[in-house]
Design a protein that fits this description.
It is globular and about 50 Å long. Helix content is 44%, strand content 17%. The protein folds into 2 domains: 211 residues, Spore Coat Polysaccharide Biosynthesis Protein SpsA, Chain A (Alpha-Beta Complex); 86 residues, no CATH class. The chain is of the alpha/beta class. Helix 6 crosses helix 12, helix 10 packs across helix 11 and helix 10 packs parallel to helix 13.
Length: 313
């Protein structure tokens, strides 16, 4: 596949914040792609390092944002509305394309039919990923590609609307139809939009052979805060669980999977830490689901997105 055969304009969209440590590698991998985007749009939240200069050197158009006004959905929507592309490809600044054909493989399903509205690619563990962090990537991003539609919620539950804007592509006209991404969410703007897209009869494709390197070695506190934010999302957007099912089944499957991996690979010394992480995740999620009952002063302390609470308390 080459750009001429695609006959679609492509915009890459990247929100950034102090990303100098990864952005040079990010743009180098993007420049090596067989398929090159028609434009690169960056929304930078008042970075204090060389982020803006690196992006401009790579040919990106940079929109400067007040850090206090950054919103996972609203910022991406603002950039998407500016985009010239018919296909919008979203990245985070630390998602490094793994192969030279990853971008074209990601968008290929969008060219095959009207039903497919969006795609997302595989996220591989980074070089420094811990065994548990690496396994989480394998659990969430398996080796086999798949197609999901609204009816699949009966089989896959909440996993039906799993997607990540760290590496995802959308038809712009479809995003426009659903008013892009909801503003004001603590995070999970991609999941909420996909939930509406599938309910309207469209499909999402997971493209396993389109991959980026992207993983996090979270501390115990970060595990709790990440899960707290998921709980807040599920509490504030209760329709997701009402429509697609709860998160408990997915959680049980993950626990079984990660413990089986550690036992199979005889990593017995990692089991106590893994169990502690599971406990912290469970506590964080339950606190997040009940965040309205917590003192307002506690909420930002329990969250990964502390600035968000200044606008939503």
């Amino acid at each position: 596949m080459n750009h001429k055969s695609i006959n679609r304009t492509i915009t890459v969209i990247v929100p950034t914040l102090n990303g100098a440590d990864t952005l040079r590698e990010f743009f180098a991998a993007l420049k090596r792609q067989h398929l090159q985007p028609d434009e690169i749009l960056v929304g930078d939240s008042s970075s204090l390092d060389q982020t803006v200069a690196i992006c401009q050197e790579a040919g990106a158009k940079v929109t400067l944002l007040d850090r206090d006004t950054f919103d996972h959905g609203g910022t991406r929507t603002k950039l998407a509305k500016q985009a010239r592309g018919e296909i919008l490809v979203f990245f985070t600044q630390d998602a490094i394309l793994a192969t030279r054909d990853a971008l074209e493989r990601l968008i290929a399903p969008l060219l095959l039919g009207d039903q497919v509205a969006c795609t997302y690619g595989r996220q591989l563990p980074g070089k420094n990923a811990s065994p548990v962090a690496a396994h989480l990537r394998l659990f969430n991003y398996p080796q086999e590609s798949s197609v999901r539609k609204y009816a699949d919620r009966c089989q896959y539950g909440l996993k039906t609307i799993f997607i990540s804007n760290s590496f995802a592509a959308y038809k712009k006209d479809c995003l426009n139809e659903f008013d892009y991404f909801k503003n004001g969410l603590i995070f999970g703007e991609d999941t909420c939009t996909l939930g509406r897209i599938l309910a309207a009869g469209h499909e999402v494709v997971y493209v396993a052979d389109a991959a980026v390197y992207h993983s996090h070695n979270y501390s115990l506190g970060q595990e709790l805060r990440r899960s707290f934010d998921i709980g807040v999302l599920h509490s504030s957007e209760k329709w997701l669980l009402d429509t697609y099912g709860g998160a408990e089944t997915v959680g049980v499957k993950y626990i079984q999977s990660v413990l089986s991996m550690l036992l199979r690979e005889k990593r017995y010394l990692l089991i106590p830490d893994c169990l502690l992480r599971i406990v912290f995740k469970m506590i964080g999620y339950k606190l997040g689901r009940s965040y309205k009952k917590l003192p307002a002063s506690w909420r930002p302390l329990l969250s990964m997105h502390r600035l968000w609470w200044q606008r939503h308390t």
